[in-house]
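pls ignore typos typing on phone
nicotinamide-adenine-dinucleotide + seq
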Amino acid sequence: MRYLITGTAGFVGFHLAKQLLEAGHIVTGFDGMTPYYDVRLKQMRHTILERHPNFTAVVGLLEDAHALSEAAKERPDVIMHLAGQAGVRYSVENPKAYFDSNLAGSWNVLELARKHEVSHLMLASTSSVYGANQSIPYSEADKADEPLTFYAASKKAMEVMAHSYAHVYGIPTTAFRFFTVYGPWGRPDMALFKFVKAILEDKEIEIYGEGRMSRDFTYVDDLVGAIIDLSHVVPSETNRVRSADVEDTLSAMAPFRVVNIGGGQPFGLLDFIDVIERTLDKKARRKLLPMQTGDMERTFANADLLTALTGSKPQTPLETGVRAFVEWYLRDGTEYDFHTLPPAA
Ligand SMILES: NC(=O)c1ccc[n+]([C@@H]2O[C@H](COP(=O)([O-])OP(=O)(O)OC[C@H]3O[C@@H](n4cnc5c(N)ncnc54)[C@H](O)[C@@H]3O)[C@@H](O)[C@H]2O)c1
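k done
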C-alpha cells in the first residue's frame, strides 16, 4: 500500500512510518520541521527513515497546498494526518500557530483526500477535546464541546470539519484521540523527557497541579499498533459495532468514526515520577507548582470501542515503557532540548 503520512519528523509519525516501511509499504512523509522544539531531533528522525528505500521525505508546511499536493503526486491509497501544532501549554501563548497548522493546514489535507479519493483518511486528534467533561472514563460518545485550550478547540474543529467532508465527498475517515503518548524518540516538551533530563542533570523538576494530576499514558508502540489495526477497519455500516455494551461513534450520515487510543489505566503524576526515579535509580528534586491554565486534572480513556474494532488495546506496563525511553535517552537523546519559543508577535 502507498501511504502519505504527515508529521513523519514528529514523534508519533516517525514511529508509524517506520513500522509501515518495515512491513513493506511505500511511505511519503510530509513535515514542515517547525521550530516548536529542537529541530535536530526532527531531522534525525527523518534521517533514520530515509535509510529505507521505500521512504520519500517532503519538507513543507501544511498551509502550503501546492507542497502538499506535490507530496501526493504518487496518489496515496491512505492518508494519515499526524502533523500539527501539538502541546497544550504553548497554545495559551501562541494560538495562531494552532489556527494555521490544525485548522488551515488540516483543511488542506481534507482537500487533498477529496482530490485523490483515498480509501481511508486517518486523523490525529487528542484526549484534550474532552476538556470540561466530568464523566470518567472518557467515552467517544460523550459530549466534547467544552475545550479548555485552543489546542483542544483546534483538534475538535478538525474532527467536525472532517465529518462534513466524509459526508459530502464520501471520504472514509477515522479520527483517533491520543492519550499522553510516550516512548523512545519522544518529545522534549513532554513530562517524561523533561523529568528524565532534569533528574540526570541534578535540576529541579516542576510538578504542576501540586502533583494531583493523572494521565492515561500510552506507549508509542501500542499506539502505532492500534493505528495500523484501525487502518484496516475502514468506517462503514458493515463494521458497525453491534454490542449492547459498546457505543459506536460511526456517524449515521457519513463514513466517519472517532476512536480513543488509550489503555484505560491512568497513573497519578507522583506515581509516574516514582517510576522514573526507580528506573534511573536516582531521586528527583521536586518542586510543586499550581495548576497551569488549560491543564486537565486527569485523562482516562474508555478503550471499549478500540477493543471492539481491533481486538486489543494498549497494554505495555508503564515501567517497561519508561525503561525503553530511558535506554533511548541515554544512548541517543541527551543532546536534544526543548526550546520555548517566544510568544507570537
Ligand atoms: N504525543 C502525544 O501525547 C499526543 C497526544 C494527543 C494528540 N497528539 C497529536 O498527535 C500528532 C502527533 O504528535 P507528536 O507527539 O508526534 O507531535 P510532534 O510535534 O512530535 O509531531 C508533529 C510534527 O508535525 C510537524 N508540523 C507541525 N506543524 C506543521 C505544519 N504547519 N506543517 C507541516 N508540518 C507541521 C512538526 O514539524 C512535527 O514534526 C499531533 O497532531 C498531536 O497534536 C499527540
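The chain has two domains: 2-179+218-261, 182-215+265-299+309-333. The radius of gyration is 19 Å. more later
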